[in-house]
Amino acid sequence: MDELMGEGAARGRLGARSVRTAGWLAGGALLAAGAAWVVRGVWEIRLAVAGEPASGPPDQGGGVHRPLNGLEDSYHVVTSLGGGVAFVCALLFLAWLWRVRDNARVLSGRPAKYLGIWVYLGWIVPVVNLWFPRGIVADAFRSTAPERRLPVSVNVWWVLWLIGMFGGVGLVSRDSTDEIIARAYEEVWPLLLADAAVVGAAVAGAFVVRTVTAAQVERIRRERGRGAARQPVGAAGG
């Protein structure tokens, strides 16, 4: 309770905004997305074990698609639900990222290294999306806690994210769901490796959110304590 009051007081004095709830939501959403990809991997294993039906893959070329069997249809449901969870996760993570970037600017008293628009565009603009999002997180942490080393989880998260994103069968894939089903029938291991990278990135990302959030909460409390110590006795007493 005292921590929440301290954070609120510092927020009013410094202009920093509460980051605790945003961190909880973003971290929880990342873990939920990771769980969704675990389920997706389980369904791909089930497809591989069941084997391709005698009628061939769902997408038979030339615009011809055969009716899906029960397992294939359920995989469509799993991937759709996973996509929905990932979308919500992205919204919550971006909201958290914007907040910690803004707080870091206020706490450090210097402009952020990256313009605010890159919080969003940094993920989709080619080439810069290879390092801008990581850079925004790293800059927010270093501005908040300059005396501390960048957590290892930041680099682990980013490497796994890039593998899962650009591995060809992960988050970004030009193949339709039916084509992914065909891949599961033919060779499931590349799909499972991409899924593992996504799950690992989600878990590491949750640690990143927790660490950066905790650093900002601690810094806000410390700044609040310093402000109270500098406050004249008469003013402190009302």
Task: Describe the fold and architecture.
- The chain is mainly α and 238 residues long.
- It has one domain (2-7, 17-55, 69-222).
- The protein contains 9 helices and no strands.
- It has helices at residues 2-14, 20-50, 70-108, 118-121, 132-144, 152-166, 177-186, 189-230, 233-236.
- Helix 2 runs antiparallel to helix 3 (70-108), helix 3 (70-108) crosses helix 5 and helix 6 packs antiparallel against helix 8.
- The longest helix has 42 residues, at 189-230.
- The chain is elongated, with a radius of gyration of 23 Å.
- It starts with a helix and ends with a helix.
- Residues 1-13 and 233-238 have low confidence and may be disordered.
Q: Which key features would you list for this structure?
A:
238 residues, mainly alpha, 72% helix, disordered N terminus
Round the Cα radius of gyration to an integer and report it.
23 Å
End-to-end C-alpha gap: 23 Å
Total domain count: 1
Approximate shape: elongated
Oligomer: single chain
How helical, in percent, are the residues?
over 70%
Number of helical stretches of at least 4 residues: 9
Nearest-integer average pLDDT: 86
Task: Please tally the β strands and state the result.
Answer: 0
Question: How would a crystallographer describe the biggest sheet?
Answer: none
TL;DR?
The chain is mainly α and 238 residues long.
SSE topology:
Layout: H1 2-14, H2 20-50, H3 70-108, H4 118-121, H5 132-144, H6 152-166, H7 177-186, H8 189-230, H9 233-236
